[in-house]
Structure formats: C-alpha cells, structure tokens
Fold this sequence. Notes:
Layout: H1 3-24, E1 32-34, H2 48-57, H3 64-78, E2 85-92, E3 95-102, E4 115-122, E5 130-136, E6 142-149, H4 154-160, H5 162-165, E7 171-173, H6 179-190, H7 193-199
Antiparallel strand pairs: 1-6, 2-3, 2-7, 3-4, 4-5, 5-6
Helix pairs in contact: 2-3, 3-6
Amino acid sequence: MKRWQSLTILLSLALVIAPVSLTGCSSGGVKExxxxxxxxxxxxKINLDEVxxxxxxxxxxxxxxxxxxxxxxxxxxxxDGEGVVALDATHENDRLxxxxxxxxxxxxxxxxxxxxxxxxxxxxAVVNNELPYRVAxxxxxxxxxxxxxxxxxxxxxxxxxxxxxxSWGGRYYTPYxxxxxxxGYRNTWRQSPQYCxxxxxxxxxxxTRSRMPSSA
Length: 216
C-alpha cells in the first residue's frame, strides 16, 4: 500500500471517530439541550429562553397566587406584542402543563380560538427531585427539553406536588379581572430603560425574531 493511501485511510477514520468522541464527552451535570435546532430563525411569538428562565426563577410571596402573579408579570415583560399574556396551568395524571396565550374568546382558560404563545410541559415522573420537562413554541414543536431540580424553587414544587401540598388544586387560569392591571404593568415596563436595553440586545442563544420596543 502506498503512503498516500495509508494517510487517506487514517484521515477517513479520524473524521468518522471524532464526532463520536465529541458527543460522548459529558461533564455529568448537563441535563438540558435544544431539541429543535432547525427552528432557528423561525419567527417565535415570545422569547422562549426568557420564558423558561422566568418559570424557574419565579419568587413571589409564600402563597401560590402571589407566585403565579409574579410569573404572569414576568411573561408580560418578556412579550413585546399586543395584548396581555394570560396563563392556563393544569396538573392532571401527574403531569404539569402551563400554556401562555393571548385571550381572544374572553372565556376562562385557554380556548381553541386563543393565540397560543408557549407551553411548558412535564414529560415524566419526578425522580430524585428532578423534573423532566419541555418548552414548546406557539406551533407546539418542542424547542427545549431537560431536567431541573425542584428543591430550589418552591413555586415549581407547589405546581408539581399540588396533590401533596394542597396549594392550588391542579387548575389555574389568569382571571379576566387581572388583565387591566397586567396591561398597566406591562405598559409601564415598556417605558423603562431596562426594557430598551434587554430587547434591543438579544442574547446569542435567542432563537426568536429580532426584537425592538413596541409602541403597543
């Protein structure tokens, strides 16, 4: 065998082996990943990275309603379209689901005629205090999935363990009476310097559309 043929074979083997070695490397603590990289550049109606972050960082006071109100305010800060973002949360058959939407039908909870923005869904049982979940966009395509500990977030604990903590009964939707307050809060937020700074400088991981301050 000629020398150049040997080198060609070695290079071919290196190209085959290298990706396997790279994907096999793991720090052991990484449990989250993007599952739909092909939607990069596709117009999303809300920044899904920020929604996910807001969900797991929601604080509020001790009771469930105050924590949900805090999350409602946060998603309305993130959204730069018209209308108020309402939430519909359910916990059925040991599965948590939260839908963010723009209310079109003026009926309680998310309806088929409403404008869906995002969904956060529990995808399996909580094991060793780890919550498996996914984040999906308005079209239902999974955008992100992984596992997060529920130990450092009382809000998520309340939602996932509602049957044990007797915290919210397994169903919540933004009351229509809250829309006016959320609209006022959102409009004030959009006049703040923080809004302009945050939404004119999207992060490199932002898979949503280019964002500029809205006049709404």
